[in-house]
Amino acid sequence: MLVEAVGFSQEYKIKVIGKTKYKRKIIAVERVLNKAFDTAIFLSSIHARENITTDLVLEMIKRGCFDEIKDLNLAFILMANPDGVKLQNVGLRAFSKKDRKKLVEMNGGSEDFSMWKANARGVDLNNNFDARFGTNVGSKKPASQGFVGKCASSEKETRAIVKYTRKIKPFMTVSYHCKGEEIYYNFFQRGDRLKRDKLVADMFAKITGYKIKNVEKSSSGGYKDWCVQKLKIPALTIEVGSDELLHPIGRENLEEIFDKNKNVANAVEFAYNVVRKTKV
Ligand SMILES: [Zn+2]
pTM of the full predicted structure? Predict the structure, then answer.
């Protein structure tokens, strides 16, 4: 899916925030109502096979789910991993012959990339951020998933997302992943910050019907982790889609997932009030 091809209303502006190794654009869609307003950032498809998360966010924008938010700006980093998504969607033919051998090798010898999560360099981008980097290593070498990279922010995608987020200075971030219908917000924050972030997460749980789970011990190098640790803001990972569904989750499940997320804007407003009132 080409993000530019989706018809957005004039309120939404498309920004290119970086390019991948294979020269694909990393895109943010912004809705800036007033430059003085604070911003919530949404991120989707940082894992290649989790395409449904970009479909979800686009559906939410198209169907006006954010229209009632009048006192905040919004930014959507759509398809944070375009090389990986292309590889997962189209397969080897989206890449030149000279790159194919390496890609197959990283994929354990298989030409089926439907379960691919990493970028096209075999780095799991959601382990590549500078937040307890390298604490949990799933793979020691480039692979479909679990390889954290040679160092934090080794990847162009990670650097683009970090730079953009630092520029925007969001008051909160929401990272959409799949699957399991769970929400994660813990990343070793304590005291008033923990209380604040729990309030925010509880509201998202109430509105979506998803369950909160603490996975901080097994989490590291994620975008949410980095936002919590470095920016000290509430940051959520929302895992959409029932655990019974198989990866990659198909579009036939979009309506049900949409239904559970269509009122998330209310939780964003609630979060903003909590953040404003909490001194940390
Ligand atoms: Zn994921």
Answer: 0.96
